[in-house]
Write a structure and sequence with these properties.
- The chain is 65% helix and 4% strand.
- With 195 residues, it is mainly alpha-helical.
- It has 2 domains: 140 residues, Hypothetical protein af1432 (Orthogonal Bundle); 53 residues.
- Strands 1-2 form a two-stranded antiparallel sheet.
- Helix 2 packs across helix 6, helix 3 crosses helix 5 and helix 4 packs antiparallel against helix 5.
- The longest helix has 25 residues.
- The termini are far apart.
Length: 195
């Protein structure tokens, strides 16, 4: 990719490193959203061997600064959860757009990246499908099982079923290949049966 792209990604990555929530994944320590974004980017490469520049910019920016809006700032119910997620996506889109503007990207690129981050054309737009599949796969791989102790089985299966419904058949097949604990595998299979 060109120098403009490289500069943008570097600046976005610097922003992702500001996430104070530290984690370790596959032996690498970093900010929670930084590690998650790296894994999403890796899944994108598996799903789409020749991703567009717009898709890659959206991938790297789609959770930028998300940690700034805590879950507790919205009601602890499904409606509050969706409001929280929308606010986070809007914040990430604005932060990414600001970086891309300083790197002198054209307005049409800014618009396309923003639309991808905000999922405005999901699921019709192919790039939006790839980004959603990659994000879901990274979630299944990195975060899925961490919620087992916190949620009851019914809630867990409902959320997992909703995640699987957003994914393409190809991504669902890849999700089946992820290594889960016996309990995680059992819940996954129950959600698939209900799908």
């Amino acid at each position: 990719m060109n120098e403009q792209f490289q500069k943008s990604i570097k600046e976005i990555q610097e922003g992702l490193k500001q996430d104070p929530r530290r984690e370790i994944f596959q032996g690498v320590e970093g900010g929670r959203d930084e590690l998650f974004t790296r894994r999403v980017a890796e899944w994108v490469q598996k799903l789409e061997p020749s991703p567009s520049e717009i898709l890659l910019l959206a991938v790297w920016g789609h959770v930028l600064n998300r940690w700034l809006i805590p879950r507790s700032s919205y009601p602890m119910n499904p409606k509050g959860y969706h409001q929280w997620r929308h606010a986070q996506s809007k914040l990430s889109a604005e932060a990414t757009e600001k970086i891309l503007k300083t790197c002198e990207y054209e307005d049409d690129i800014l618009k396309s990246v923003r639309e991808l981050i905000l999922k405005l054309n999901f699921p019709k737009d192919p790039d939006s499908r790839v980004l959603e599949d990659a994000a879901c796969l990274a979630f299944m791989e990195m975060k899925y099982e961490s919620y087992i102790p916190e949620w009851g089985e019914e809630k867990y299966i409902r959320i997992l079923k909703g995640t699987l419904e957003k994914m393409t058949p190809q991504a669902q097949e890849l999700a089946l290949q992820i290594s889960y604990s016996p309990a995680g595998r059992q819940l996954f299979e129950k959600a698939l049966e209900l799908g």
